[in-house]
Amino acid sequence: MPPVMYFFLALAVLIVGYAVYGRVVEKLFRPNFARPTPAETMADGVDYVKLPTWKLFLIQLLNIAGVGPVFGPILGALYGPSALLWIVFGSLFAGAVHDYFSGMLSLRYNGKSIPDVVGFTLGNGFKQFMRVFSLVLLVLVGVVFVSAPAGILTGLTAPKWAFAGMGFWLTVIFIYYFLATILPIDVIIAKIYPLFAAVLLIMAFGVAGGLIFKGYGFFNWPEIQAGGSVFSNVHPKGLPIWPLMFITIACGALSGFHATQSPLMARCMATEKSGRLVFYGAMVAEGVIGLVWATAGMSFYESADALNAVISMPGGAGNVVNEVSMTLLGPVGGVLAILGVVVLPISSGDTAFRAARLLVADFTRVPQAKIPARLMIAVPLFVIGVILAQVDFSIIWRYFGWSNQTLATVVLWAAAAYMVKRGGCHWLVTIPAVFMTATTVSYIMGAPEGFKIPWNISYWIGIAAAAAAFVWFMLSLGRFKAGIPLELAVEKPSEA
To answer: Could you give the 3-state DSSP secondary structure of residue 352?
Structure first.
């Protein structure tokens, strides 16, 4: 099979997977299309605002994307075309399942943030853990997604405008984030995200088309040919595919950050019928973006060493985005493509801080209809964010990668427990939960930012941890059935 067909085959599997497996997941969850949603029962004009399904899909896609489906797959490309397997099957069987359940469970629990959702299914101890863990993750995401776009914009503008340095763009982005965090969701986010989505589509389809029509050889690296298989591990440093690749390619296949964003859309849905497109579909669309950039990394450069050399330069994976976009699309199209990559983190960073505000509000039970109440929570969060923005970006990103996948693993276990309560098939979430438990534990055991245990030992620790988690889950089936509230009662609209 010609190498280019691997790309089209992967793309086809993603599309068919959404149509087929997405419907299977929906059927097993059993949505109730007639059930009133929080947007109807708890409308407040700020966070609980009914929006059309097409807007919800575009907002969710931009909320969850960040730089993950671009930078992650580019770094994952160093391992060779095996990265495509994780992007495709991870998106369909882990990431999209995770996103669908986190969104639909929030919908069933009156739009509650993910710590409360986990608490309703796994108990109070997990809820308290998730409150701290999720809040730290959201602030880290907000900071990461300030630094990344600011760096790209600085590279574009500083040579022409002396004032437009890193400090200038950090300030501009933080101001935008603050406004997007405290203003009603339909004032800024619901109005500009469709435009952001148009830029994003230009970026993704433009890069894919440029590779094809300009005749770049797909997956023809000498390392791949020498390995005898298109799925050989060709990483220049010889790093193991598992668990490293599965942590590196996060948002393009599975991401716990998405679970913190799904409640934002759960509070704006008019019907549970929208769930498959908004939650499952947005994750598959993100997988398509990841597929494009992983393929670009392996096709634009002549070898894994050449790609790694560009990534190793100051600017990291952003250098790849710049070179690929400008070469394939020309100056105008290239700038649009680069702006598409800038849009991704900005449209996740703003909602990261917004989700952090709502998480704190849920914990403190402070209603958010009034501006002073929103400021009381948002201002301290942004003070912390500004301080963290001074820390080395690479350090924050490494810890974000592991904590992001760990949060996703907890959410998968919570979804499995919910399905036990429903008397449904829990295996569609239990299986990816077991796999990700092994992956995250193995990674933190062996990673430089973790315990630095040799990988051949870390693997077995991860497998043992996954086995222990599975045994605990199976022994707890009776407790889950008896103790988990199936769903909260539908609340009546406030008279205030």
So the answer is: helix
